[in-house]
Amino acid sequence: MYRKFVLLLVSALLFAGALSFAVFAKDVVAYLGFNGNNANDGLSDTTPKKSFDAEGTGVVGIIPNGGTVVACQKAYFGGNYTLNLGGPVTITGNYDGKDYKNPEPAENPAAGVFKMASGATLTLLSDLVLDDIIVFQENAQNTISVGAGVTFMVTDSCVLMTKPGNDYHFKVVLEAGATAILSEAAQETFEIVNIGGTGASAGTE
């Protein structure tokens, strides 16, 4: 764990009254994959859910109060979505000794990926951590809108990729009272629109 990252967490975050220095909310874990099925239990990489929330049958049904979502394939948001749970969420492509990240093909990485439908917006009303995952910008620019009192983090272990030919990555909009703790790479790569929020570096020393 990075000392600077931990110090920033201490100063910037209070996760449901108890801060986890391990970043992950390891008590509740759900597996997500684009080739999964929402009829699956979502409790292993062989039985992943397909979507984050499909009328309660996706991974949200497993982590209503927050937890860790393991992108064993692709964590894909198929349209505009509002994340509003009872606790913080970590989405990762590396969990329990298994690194699922596969950056090939470059046009559409195969696994351990966080991606969104073309032009879609993810609105955060709950804290979100992207940790050790490929963050992939595919077509029209995606937006992550961070609401008041909410923290969005992108750790140093994330791999930022765009579809070949793109000259842009995600846009992050910080509403008044929002906080973003971003890796140095994310600060340099993302388009940041700050409407009275707070930004901090999650880079290493």
Provide a descriptive summary of the structure in words.
- It is globular, with a radius of gyration of 15 Å.
- It starts with a helix and ends with a strand.
- Helix content is 8%, strand content 33%.
- A seven-stranded parallel beta sheet has the order 1-2-5-10-13-16-18.
- The chain has helices at residues 3-12, 184-189; strands at 29-32, 67-71, 74-77, 81-83, 89-92, 94-95, 98-99, 113-116, 121-124, 128-131, 134-137, 143-146, 151-154, 159-162, 171-174, 179-182, 191-194, 198-201.
- The chain is mainly β and 205 residues long.
- The protein is built from two helices and 18 strands.
Structural class: mainly beta
Oligomer: single chain
Radius of gyration: 15 Å
Low-confidence stretches are 1-26
How helical, in percent, are the residues?
A: under 10%
Shape: globular
C-alpha end-to-end distance: 12 Å
**Main beta sheet, described?**
7 strands, parallel
Record field, number of beta strands: 18
Q: How large is the share of residues in beta strands?
A: 25-35%
Average pLDDT = 87
- Largest sheet: spatial strand order: 1-2-5-10-13-16-18
State the order of secondary-structure elements, H for helix, E for strand: HEEEEEEEEEEEEEEEEHEE
Give the count of helical stretches: 2
